[in-house]
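Hi R.,

Here's the chain you asked about this morning:
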Amino acid sequence: MKNLVRILSYLHKYRALAAFNILFNVLTVVFSLFSVVMIIPFLQLLTNKIPLVMQEPKFALTAQYLLEYLKFLLSKEISANNNIVALAKFCVLIAGLFFLKNLFRFLALYFLSPIRSGSVRDIRTDLYSKLVSLPLAYYSKERKGDIISRVTDDVKEVENCIISFIEVTVREPLTIIIFLVFLLLLSSQLTGFVLIMLFITGFIIGRVGKSLKRQSSEAQSISGHLLSVVDETLSGLRIIHAFNAESFMKKQFARVNNDLFSLSRKINTRRELSSPLTEFLAICVVCMVLYFGGILVLNSKTLEAETFIGFMVLFAQLIPPAKNFSNAFYNIRKGLASAQRIFEVLDAETKIPEKANALAIKEFKHGIEYQNVGFTYNNYDNKKILDNVSIKIDKGRMVALVGQSGAGKTTLVDLLPRFYDLEEGKILLDGQDIRDYKLNDLRSLFGMVSQESILFNDSVHNNIAFGIENATREKVIEAAKIANAHDFIMRLEHSYDSTIGDRGNKLSGGERQRLTIARAVLKNPPILILDEATSSLDSNSERLVQDALIKLMKGRTTIVIAHRLSTIQYADEIIVMQDGKIAERGNHIGLMAKEGIYKKLVELQAF
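And here is the predicted structure, written out as tokens:
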């Protein structure tokens, strides 16, 4: 129920449209009722079962008054014309009533459309906003495909849930209630019998759909796993081909796909069972009503044959909404399972909080200081990644971090722009704890060039200008020139307007890296973080990128995670990390003279 209330909260801003939808649904039901009720008096008068009613009945809020008034109108028409003309006019009237009924039905759906589309858009917007604000630690525990599944498949199920709920709470109940009230006025005995039958039917349908929510949640989870396998396959095709692992990946995909098939089959079987089951139960109810009504007509004489026929026609109008009600019930069950998965993301803890009175910071003035910093990822082994690390970096200096893989180098720099929040100690920037600053202001001080070139399937211009509003072409070109990227960009088919493909796959490794450097140049940050920026490049590409990096680092405070000696030998200070602690520190010459860990790393080139 809690999840349903949260879903419906997205409908609040569309309450005016919902009011129009309800109004036109009411009119649809009313005209549907009139178009059917007209049949009873017409049959009675046309077959001469009763005399013409020439005196207008006195008004009363009863079904009897409505029937008598319709008899009065029809009697006037029959007396003024012959039966054939009256029949023609009656048919035109019925057609007109059905036209109005369907017109109002269309208008109800017309006002429903922006409600469903708008609410789903709002859910997706909130979901995406949450995804981009969640810390990196969240994604280390989640499958990418599962997250994509929540944004796509789960949101679609919630959309079906919203539509089903509106139909269940507005149109179908209105139809059932209004028709039942009129049936009750026609024959209380027969209507009471119908209500008992409908209660039994609803109980049976409810029992069938009891486990649908749990199975739907499992199916969406497996669907997310399937998307993860596809994503990993597309990302790793080169390795898959290189290791002849096509059969292995096919088996892995087939296993997940078969699991999804088995569960989906069960869910679809239950869901598809609702329609034939409802129809069969409805026919059983009709047969029981026919039998009971026949007794009232033939034996007790408490019901006229024409009234009974009209009653059955009206009762037949209850079958479609009852059937829709059943289908909607299943959609709501399934939608609530998807809503649970969506709200798990929306409710995920954002562990990078910003203080209510956070300080603004627009420039970097003095320096950075790590004070007794400790950190643990809280993953499978809870290994302490950083342990009592203290470093001071003055403005304008270049500090290099070296050490074997897993020593804590990347974690140390990721704490600085608060990709993660430290657990022990503190980090000061210009003498103030970084947690006291506004998060956007803090991150605006940093530029980053990582080992993996993070690019987007967009134009060269938009990739360089990423995150920078109103970046002119002139500034983009200037940044590209500094990054040694302008020449190869001009050789592209559409130069700066060329699309570079998914993750920049139309470019070489060196070209991709130079674009990321151009992006950092355009941002013009006072603090630069280089995370093994040249480690995956060939010698020629490394030379071009290294030259671009030297230009980029000029006049900036730089923290370098080094992989090659050429990157860090001119650093003001080199810090050697081992098992999350500082093992050695000094400049290149001094550390080489110690003949310690650093010298061994240099000799092995194993940074």
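One quick note: Residues 183 and 191 are 6 Å apart (CA to CA).

Cheers,
M.
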